[in-house]
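If you are new to this repository, start here. Below is one unmodified record pulled from the training split, so you can see the exact layout before writing a loader.
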Amino acid sequence: MKAATAQFQRSHGYALFALALVLRLGHALAMHSAGDSTLYLDAEVMARTAEGVWSALPPGDQPYLLSPLYPYLMAPFLGLDELLNAGSPLLGLRLAQAMMGALTALLVARLATGLAGQRAGWIAGLLAALHGPSIYYEGEILVAGPQALLLVSAFYLAQGAQASALPSRHWFASGLSLGLASTLRPIALPLALVLLVQGWRDAGVASVKRILAGLAIAVLPFSASNLFTSGEPVLLTASGGFNFWVGNHEGASGLFEAPPGYDLATDPVARRIALVESGEELDFSDASAWWRNRALGDMANDPIEALARLGRKGLFFLHPVEIPQLGPGFALARDTSPWLRWPLDSRWLLLIALCAPLLSRRSRPLWAGLCTYGVLLALFFVVGRYRAPILPIAAILAGITLDGIWSSLAAGQVRGRAVAGLLIAVGALSLLIQEGGMKLNERGGADLQARRAGLELLQAGRGSEAVPLLSEALTHNDTPGTREVLGMALAETGQAAQAAQEFRKVLAVDHTRPAAAFHLAGLLLGPLAGDDDVQRLATTREAEVLYRSALDARPDWAEAHFHLGITLLRQRRFDEVPVTVERALDLAPLNAPWRSEAMRVLEIARARPPAGEKQ
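And here is the target side for that same chain:
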């Protein structure tokens, strides 16, 4: 890119930022008012990591499995929730991400203006500000919003280097921004090749060194942490092999489809499945390699189908539906939040963006970044939240394309008409493809909707309404996750025996599911404890086994450690109680509702003589 020839006016920037911020705050508050407070998928896993960060716990003995950086962003907001006793988890983070989204729209406008002028800047800025899926993802507890800001910042800083009196700082900051984006999700890291080529062409070897230095400062601390905590040489995360298998194994659709026995909450990289199926002792990087090699074997056995699958995933990347993964998605949020109901979908944004090099040579680095990201995503699997971070870049390119068509048509040039005709033809083809063979359920399935609704009813104290809803969902799709929530609803409404039956069904299918084990153990200590000492001892011992099973899957589950201590106390194993209860207190937040009871259990155990001594 050459030096910017125009700048987005400051007053226009204030107006665009305010518009984008109002839309995002409106959406965040609408979802908050609707009771949207449940953390799903990655958010649930990363929230547990963030709790450990906030409590200054040791990092553990495994490499990063999901986003390395995002839990550190979450941690202070979890601490704020704890101090304020907030009813909606991480509302402060959602509002902060709304501001990040507004800043992203402003940077989009400024970058497009520098490349193609004021009109292109306004078009691009409005596309970014009004794009419903972007508003949605920026309000979710996901890496997509912050990563989008960092990706745009990387290219914005690279563009500004040529007009700066201190270009080396711009190149360094550009590399740092891209490095931080990569620590949110490593798929962004290969975009460094685009920045390095741009820097070398614009400013020579010195800029390449600055970019690499910025990348290293962002990435290497997490690589070092992986090595020191686990002994494994993992650059950022150990999830790449499993994600590659999901998108490329024999019979893969190109979307996320979990293998039997997979539990994202306790084993997001499917290491346990790899251990069982391989029959070997695998660390996390070995398990990742096992999944990757398994997928490569399937691809080698049928290369024609593998290539066809890659093409299918490329079409999914251009699909209008915001494809959900395992949890609720954009379509369900749109039902609740009117701030998402703008007609622009991601398909048109991407199709228009891909035409930018036909009208502007200066758009080529951004176009290369968009295409690189799309190819990388197609190598794994396609879901809406993974596509979202690159959409602001697409908005810049779309603004340049539309401005170029406008200018070309006004000047009577053939090129603008040709590009407009191409867009119409490709858009019509995309509609035919969507309706003809790639029509997707944008709501993620009835079981997912019911599970989400059931959890929200439970949190609102309306378990009696959740039971029929979840029971009906199970008649259509019997999944362990939905059955777990049904068990929780039955337990809340006093139907302990029926709840225990549901949890036992879940554990019969997958004995490693910690939530089912935890809740069943709670019933055995409570309403199903038994009528005499013999029965109570038997149920207590079974509860101990269940709590230990839950802790095998989730070693840092504070409440499970506490209840395990209760089972030991009831068995008069007083010398074993302090270890597990102290562990629970170390892991628990200061406002844990059971903390005072745990302190009493600890006092009782310490007041009793050790095993073998007379009282």
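Two things worth knowing about this chain: The mean pLDDT is 89. Residues 240-301 form one domain.
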